[in-house]
Design a protein that fits this description.
The complex is a heterodimer of chains A (335) and B (387). Chain A is α/β, with parallel strands linked by helices. Chain A is built from 11 helices and 18 strands. Chain B starts with 12 loop residues before the first helix and ends with a helix. Chain B has one domain: ABC transporter involved in vitamin B12 uptake, BtuC, CATH 1.10.3470.10. The chains are: A alpha/beta (335), B mainly alpha (387).
Chain lengths: 335, 387
């Protein structure tokens, strides 16, 4: 049985002197164990970072306990805790005169002597961590010369070099472009498998989290709901957690979209990729996609010079070359 | 896909072969003792110039000799060597000048420079602020209050000081400054035991400084003009006031402060990433904070007591040594700030004496006059990425 990071009746939040405590979530009984990538989702300000910080002992709980292998994290010596639990925070690395290698080497601090001298084993672990994030070429580059994404990679490599069973990451994909976001999530997923690590990642990329995480912790004002992404989508929890005026969760596609107040229905005929992209565009523009009887019907037509979109609104028919033109026509005629 | 394994190479032969290409070839034979001790020379130091530490050491030696040779009367260097080796100089007064006046002054300057450079580095790293300096915690304010109380209020001692000769007056002044500084640092330490945030500690220190500064201003406002002059003379700072008898006390404090700083090298490096990261890397933040404040207290209190509030060196030297060594690693920076500080202080002491002249400039004027342009240049070039 692998050790687990778990909470017993945990209450998280902030203490304020002379005033009532700010309680963000209470009665939390969570469990994080090896070979799992867990996504921590929730709207801004709900307390994701506070939960991570409480897990890592950076912040004291308002009540209850965080246990690491049945030991209270606030009672574990910092150095021992650092060997078991590593973090990637949202704070940007400093504008220091350091190269990539030096940043990753800091991850070996819980394992090195009082001067922080690196042994062969330390250098081995650093090299592996750098390769794991595909950052070997960043080793000799100055921090100041790197992009946000490259620095983030190094910070993750630094956490890897720490060789801890548990990893907590606070929005590691925030500054990254989409391919880098996917790379990062895929890397974290790989680590849970190859190293049997337990990784908790707070993120706003719901789509990515749903695709890569083994389970999700959905955090809302009412508490945390845990489960497989698909279960949470089906039972409406995912939609509920991010509920806000005008935001809807598309149950069948697993996406959030903005609803235009009083949005009209548009029917899109066809099942090929053209139809799929048009549905996306129509949804993006704030209409709802219906499967039958609506005032507006769009289909693909091959009349005349080439393939075009045929738009029928009530009894009027028009032809448009691009999706952009279709949307403009909908805008003019449907309201 | 890479695997993270516990023991180097075990169970992952392909990876270790790949890694052997990544890792630099060992160069243990060429490594100096210092380099091996601190492990300087690894890839984490690529781009840094640790060899400049040796150059700084050489510069320190040269400046030390120059500071003994130059002054109101110039003494040839070979005579200095003779005197230092216990021989008699060609002219009798030279032996006296060198051993009784210049040597204590030069050693005091070097010690003070080391102390101010290193404590400035500690403060800048701990507060993650390039403008932090040894006196941000209010030490100089505490010392100045002690001195102001003595100089501005007591009649007899004030008079003795005015003459600028009374040994008892000098000692009293040192004691007052030291007591004021030590009291301030005790308060800051007590605060550091309770306050978790470095920013809070910084603001507390600054506010304490303003508060004490107001008391000093009040004393100045009601004081006699000639007493005010005596007080202002103290604020100029000077290395000449340290006698051979006082030197061991200064040296002891500085050595203790430097030793404590050396023990803090690892947490200081972790603190470059901020307090949260440092904690997650296993740094005992409370211990590190107390250690940093205590080391600063030892270094700065002693210097302020014996040499007055020497400005500028503490803020400039860390920037200079970072720029020179091209590194933020405290294993390099700590000895770097030590040597750079000693060199800068000695240079300032030499220039303040205006060799070949009986005039002596206020030390604080010289440090800022010489140093500010240099630091501006270093910081400017750093910002342009030329270093």
């Amino acid at each position: 049985m692998r050790p687990a990071l778990e909470t017993r009746n945990l209450t998280i939040g902030y203490r304020r002197r002379g005033e009532a405590d700010v309680c963000l979530a209470k009665a939390l009984n969570l469990r994080l164990q090896g070979r799992a990538l867990v996504g921590l989702l929730g709207p801004n300000g709900v307390g994701k970072s506070t939960l991570l910080r409480t897990f890592a002992g950076l912040q004291k709980p308002l009540g209850g306990q965080v246990l690491l292998a049945d030991e209270d994290v606030t009672a574990i010596a910092p150095r021992d805790l650092a060997r078991k639990l590593s973090m990637v925070l949202t704070a940007a690395p400093p504008p220091a005169l350091m190269n990539g290698y030096a940043i990753v080497a800091l991850g070996r601090q819980p394992h090195t002597d009082w001067l922080g001298r690196l042994t062969d084993k330390d250098r081995h672990m650093i090299a592996i961590a750098l390769r794991a994030v595909d950052g070997a070429d960043l080793a000799e580059q100055r921090l100041a010369e790197l992009s946000d994404g490259q620095r983030q990679k190094l910070m993750i490599a630094r956490a890897l070099a720490q060789q801890s069973e548990f990893m907590l990451l606070d929005e590691p994909t925030a500054y990254l472009d989409l391919p880098r976001k996917i790379e990062t999530m895929a890397l974290l997923k790989r680590l849970t498998r190859s190293e049997a690590r337990a990784i908790l990642v707070a993120t706003h990329d719901i789509d990515l989290a749903m695709r890569y995480c083994d389970s999700l912790w959905l955090m809302s004002k009412d508490g945390i709901i845990c489960g497989a992404p698909e279960d949470l989508a089906l039972d409406g929890s995912l939609g509920g957690a991010f509920r806000a005026d005008g935001i809807r969760f598309d149950q069948s596609r697993g996406r959030f979209y903005r609803e235009r107040p009083g949005g009209q229905a548009v029917m899109v005929v066809g099942e090929d990729e053209h139809a799929a992209w048009l549905r996306r565009a129509v949804t993006r523009a704030g209409y709802s996609v219906s499967s039958g009887s609506s005032r507006a019907i769009v289909s693909r037509s091959r009349n005349g010079s080439g393939p075009r979109w045929k738009l029928r609104i009530d009894e009027r028919v028009g032809y448009h070359g691009t999706i952009e033109a279709v949307l403009r026509a909908l805008e003019c005629n449907l309201t | 896909m890479t695997q993270l394994v516990d023991k180097a190479g075990r169970g992952a032969p392909t990876i270790s072969r790949e890694l052997s290409e990544l890792q630099p070839k060992p160069r243990a034979r060429t490594a100096t003792f210092a380099a091996r001790f601190t492990n300087i020379g690894g890839r984490e130091f690529s781009g840094a110039k640790p060899v400049l530490l040796v150059a700084l050491l050489g510069a320190l030696g040269v400046l030390l000799m120059l500071s003994l040779a130059l002054g109101s009367a110039s003494i040839p260097l070979e005579q200095i060597v003779t005197i230092l080796l216990g021989g008699e100089a060609d002219r009798q007064p030279w032996t006296n000048i060198v051993l009784k006046f210049r040597l204590p002054k030069s050693v005091a300057a070097a010690l003070a420079g080391m102390a101010l450079g290193v404590s400035g580095l500690l403060m800048q790293t701990y507060f993650r602020n390039p403008l932090a300096e040894p006196f941000v915690l209010g030490v100089s304010s505490g010392a100045s209050l002690g001195v102001a109380l003595i100089v501005l209020t007591s009649g007899a001692v004030g008079g003795a000081l005015l003459a600028g000769l009374g040994l008892a007056g000098d000692l009293l002044l040192s004691a007052a400054a030291g007591l004021g500084a030590a009291l301030t640092m005790t308060l800051v330490l007590l605060a550091a035991l309770r306050v978790q945030s470095s920013v809070t500690l910084l603001v507390l220190g600054l506010m304490f400084g303003y508060f004490v500064g107001a008391i000093v201003s009040l004393l100045l406002y009601f004081a006699l003009p000639e007493r005010i002059q005596a007080y202002i003379n103290w604020t100029f700072g000077s290395f000449s006031g340290v006698t051979a008898e006082q030197l061991p006390i200064l040296a002891l404090f500085v050595a203790a402060g430097l030793a404590l700083s050396a023990a803090l090298v690892k947490p200081l490096n972790a603190l470059l990433l901020g307090e949260d990261y440092a904690l997650s890397l296993g740094v005992n933040l409370n211990r590190a904070r107390i250690g940093i404040v205590l080391a600063t207290a030892l270094l700065v209190c002693a210097v302020t007591a014996f040499c007055g509030p020497i400005a500028f060196i503490g803020i400039a030297v860390p920037h200079l040594s970072r720029g020179l060594l091209g590194s933020s690693d405290h294993r390099l920076l700590l000895p770097g700030a030590c040597l750079t500080g000693a060199c800068v202080a000695l240079l300032a002491a030499i220039v303040a004496e205006l060799p070949g002249n009986n005039l002596v400039l206020p030390l604080n004027v010289v440090t800022a006059f010489l140093g500010a342009p240099v630091v501006m240049l270093v910081v400017w070039r750093q910002a342009q990425g030329k270093l």
